[in-house]
């Protein structure tokens, strides 16, 4: 919970009086459900909502998907004032989200930032297990205009079939599993002024493109087709491809066509980009894909005049942290050929609104 208003009440009587007479100070409800619910957190949350009077609420709710629960008393407290929620930032498992869908009204909600983990495991069989009320949790939000909805599991991107008031949205950030799905939603966005989407490369041709970033549903095949169709292989200097699964052969076919690229990032959320030995060693074996790329690079240096130096970042979620540093060190002699290779296990998750919109 936010501590600022509580601190004001402890400075002196004058500051306490000012804080208690300023409802807006109490309107930011920040709940991290992991470990909360003890030491008076529940009555404090109730008191904060009471002191905010009728001021619209900004609500942040965080809960780790590592510990799944189907209810939480602090969530119940926040939902008791759901009709006053104006801005909501929600990061939780779908079981808790299902609790939110049970008869709660979000009539004042204008901005929704939602991230849910729809992992398939022994706790949760499939997204079809949820009823219509779950997928309609935010359908009756007459003031909602800003939506950021990036929902995935930790292996691949998926877009849940939420029923949302698309026509009234003015700002949207989301991802789609298919171009057909993307176009279907785009047809409903009659009032949108800012929009950041993925999976639309199949419909684009950009012959002058110099920088391309593709996250999520855009795989190497899609990017390869796009580059060939756009005839931008010679103009492209920067490429970022972060996907659920990167096919080695397709990725190598793509990089073979890029003669001007100076910055290249290939990131695999699923952890299949770099093959690993079954046992750790002091000097790890160079993965097959990396060897193939190096051979391609050295061959290209001989055949392409004025080939620019290349900074290559390879990220693989399943790569152990000590091994990524060892591989980076092992590949450092390639710098003398103009190839700088960095290997990492930290695949950056997309935050499209916070990054330049590059495609």
TrEMBL record:
InterPro entries: LRR_dom_sf. This is F-box domain-containing protein. The lineage of its organism: Eukaryota, Fungi, Dikarya, Basidiomycota, Agaricomycotina.
